[in-house]
Specification:
By secondary structure, the chain is α+β, with helices and mostly antiparallel strands. The chain is built from 15 helices and twelve strands. The strands form three sheets. A five-stranded antiparallel sheet has the order 2-1-5-4-3, with helices on one face. A five-stranded antiparallel sheet has the order 7-6-12-11-10. The longest helix is centred in the middle third of the chain and has 32 residues. The protein is elongated and about 90 Å long. One of its GO terms (molecular function) is DNA binding.
Length: 374
């Protein structure tokens, strides 16, 4: 079996198992003479390395070959901020592989605070290559070696130049496969069994699936909408809080028998967010879905329909009854021949008397009344 065929067979296995990229790294270092290698997630704007939660526990991320646990922790705790190569990689984005010594001389490197960490491992140069890129991040391969060994430097650059297309193709195939594994298809029945409005969302609040109750909530309610496939709250602070809560739950330790869950109220709505998978993969990408259920924070079981709430005038009761049946203020106007200004004055009084923010809370309260009394 020739080298290219052996590599392709190994890369094919990485599609369904990202951890096998560590074996790929090992093969590449052995073929090129490099002593160590890393596959890492990088910030698109700064090229800074993304250090995941699990690295301290399992050395899972980034994908490492040749680095001891001691040196890995040393880098994170003491040398991460003093790494001068990161700034070079940001300025000279490695669409094609190159050696960092081409832009940052070894003599200068030896004067940096980063040198003790490198010198202790007999590293003085690295070849970097972009393996994958998206709008917010990119994934790098770095091969490390002694700069005095020009043959290794040449071998690393030549190898990555020769196989860069294949390496990129198989990483992208694996990325697509991992996204498909988090597909919402298997959750549709589960969503419909929820008693509340339920959404399946990613860390960016992109809605991947929703049940009928959620569809009605975003259609009829004023508080929660879907805009450009993202959950949207009109209030800017509320919108930011929702995104932060959904994103930050990935920091919790995931256990399949006890998944992390957070409960919070925003803008008159009660949210429950449950993490449905491990928040980070081996390089730190968060592809886990979240189950988000939503109820009115004001909903309370009752033995009377909401329009019979004491203190409402006859017109206000008529308005509440229209809204409870899924109608809008404009429907109330048309049904009773009321001027727009008058109708909205009634609506303002109703919100104050019922202590609500939008009509979805009336609809939810009436639905709860029907479920409890029919």
């Amino acid at each position: 079996m020739d080298l290219s065929q052996k590599l392709i067979e190994l890369l094919y296995k990485t599609i369904s198992d990202i951890s096998l990229w560590k074996t790929v790294l090992k093969e590449i270092t052995q073929l090129t003479g490099a002593s160590k290698g890393i596959i890492m997630l990088r910030d698109k704007a700064t090229a800074e390395l993304y250090i995941t939660q699990s690295i301290y526990l399992e050395l899972d991320s980034p994908l490492l070959y040749g680095f001891s646990a001691e040196k890995t922790f040393e880098y994170i705790d003491h040398y991460y901020q003093s790494d001068p190569w990161t700034a070079i990689e940001n300025v000279h984005h490695p669409v094609r592989p190159y050696a960092l010594s081409s832009y940052y001389e070894v003599s200068k490197l030896k004067q940096s605070a980063f040198w003790p960490w490198l010198d202790s491992q007999q590293i003085s140069d690295t070849v970097v290559f972009e393996l994958f890129e998206s709008s917010k991040y990119w994934v790098s391969i770095n091969l490390y070696f002694d700069a005095d060994d020009s043959q290794v430097k040449t071998a690393c650059i030549n190898f990555l130049n020769q196989y860069q297309k294949i390496l990129r193709q198989y990483w992208e195939l694996g990325h697509t496969f991992r996204l498909s594994k988090s597909s919402p298809d298997g959750f549709y029945y589960f969503l419909e069994q929820q008693n509340s409005a339920a959404f399946l969302v990613d860390r960016h609040t992109k809605v991947r699936a929703l049940n009928d109750k959620a569809r009605q909530l975003v259609t009829d309610g004023d508080g929660l909408k879907i805009k450009d496939e993202l959950l949207f709250i009109k209030d800017k602070l509320g919108r930011a809080q929702l995104r932060r809560r959904i994103c930050d739950i990935s920091n919790a330790q995931y256990q399949i028998d006890n998944p992390p869950e957070e409960n919070f109220d925003i803008d008159g709505l009660s949210f429950s967010c449950t993490l449905l998978g491990k928040g980070e993969d081996l390089i730190g990408l968060d592809t886990a879905l979240r189950l988000l259920t939503v109820e009115s924070a004001q909903v309370r079981p009752t033995t009377k329909p909401i329009w019979e709430t004491p203190g409402l005038t006859s017109r206000e009761r008529q308005l509440v009854e229209v809204l409870a049946d899924g109608g809008r203020v404009v429907d109330f106007m048309n049904q009773y021949g009321i001027a727009k200004s008058t109708a909205h004055a009634h609506w303002g009084n109703v919100k104050h008397k019922l202590d609500i923010q939008d009509r979805s809370e009336i609809y939810a309260s009436h639905k709860l009344f029907l479920e409890n009394n029919l």
